[in-house]
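Look at one such:
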Amino acid sequence: MRTGDFIRTPLLQLTKNKSALHARFTANWSSDVGVYEPDDGLLLNRWYHIAYTLSDPEKRLDIYIDGEWIGFYGISKIKVQKVIFNDGPLYIGRAHSYLGFNGEISNVRYFNWRLSPEEVIEDYFDESQKKPIVYGSKIALAHVSTGKYLSTKGIKYDLGRNVQHYMAICDGQELDLKNDVWTIIGANGISIKEGDPVSLNNIIGFKHQATGCYLNSHGTNYGRVTPMSKQQQVTMCSDRDSNNDWVIRRYNSTTSYDIGHLMNGDIISLFHIKTNKPALYSNAILLGDGSQEVSCYGDGSDKNNKLFYNNTFSGVLN
């Protein structure tokens, strides 16, 4: 955050070539005070949790990487020396007069108090659980309202001669390693690279690990509706086509739907492309075996459209 070349409170940069942290602030005796290269530098193609804390009453700057304290600067003349703050614009990913940062930055938070070391560690452990979901990740999807996992019990919809699909259900609040695990794949006919992050608002697919079937939906013609609510069916089928394509969106209470990449623990909605994007839906309507019916219904805003991503099985398939 700088109002010009001389007020830089706070400033956090990476040094050239080495990518070591360069944490600075402006004080009443110098425009450029702080910590220079407190470590060996950051590695390429890796996420880091970085915390910069600064306090005039406590007369110090502290730097943390992944919750670990790596450096500090302390003001020695505490009665006469002080930090100069400013109300200029906050530049993220670039500086006032430099080209900026070539990489990705996510979840920047600015606190109006100095975090304690314990708060930094707590924040790191909270964030470290939100790992990126990549193509090839093995995941589970839990229905937010009821906590039950998207699954199957092998029950089939009879859609006519030689056309049978497994019924998708939400069942059990304890993870079933056989029936609740899915693999993230690309949209039908689209080439993807396993290990690449999954972008939000993208078209993707889901392959059920145990059966090898794809998460599917289709129109309601010929009476192809769910048994209880008479809504659009959600099934699992062995045929790979555009009925397996879903748009993924992360729910955000401020802007409704978010941008960026899919992360473990995200609350998302899935929209079926082929049938004009109704959202995957479940509720407390129980089938005869006690599982929840799953359908496509609504615009994604209802609480019953929300799913929770669990990336317990994160990894790229061989």
